[in-house]
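user:
I keep going back and forth on a fold encoding question. Separate attempts, laid side by side, tell us more than any discussion would. Would you put together a sequence-and-structure record for a protein of your own picking? Write it directly below this note and I will take it from there.

assistant:
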Amino acid sequence: MEMDFNLFMNDVVRQAREEIETSGYTQLKTPEEVEAAFSKPGVSLVMVNSVCGCAGGIARPAAAHAIHTDKRPQNLYTVFAGQDKEATAKARSYFTEYPPSSPSFALLKDGKVLTMVERHEIEGHDPMSVINKLQSYFDEYCEEV
């Protein structure tokens, strides 16, 4: 029995979206949503989601667990590379000092990039090392909530 690849990929995408949304991140699916979200004051964490294995096995679990700390961003957002292309392009237009990579994390304050965790810092690493890296940035840039 042959599996329909499009149905399979739709299911993978749906699960990836649900996983990050359940963790408390707001999906930004249009350039307008990105602009509105990034103009909010305060510190925001943006996860550039993808369907690759390192997103599912490392980045999304890290995104879910890193935020369980005293100092964390006020705003949690995600854009989906390869799915919501215009929204992802708009988000990446804020990350001008960094090449496009997914999965990745951007920490912004008032719409300006403070730092990023790029794919090469995720792929081949374990979720705990990514959590530790994110939390060290939270300690540096965020207030207690």
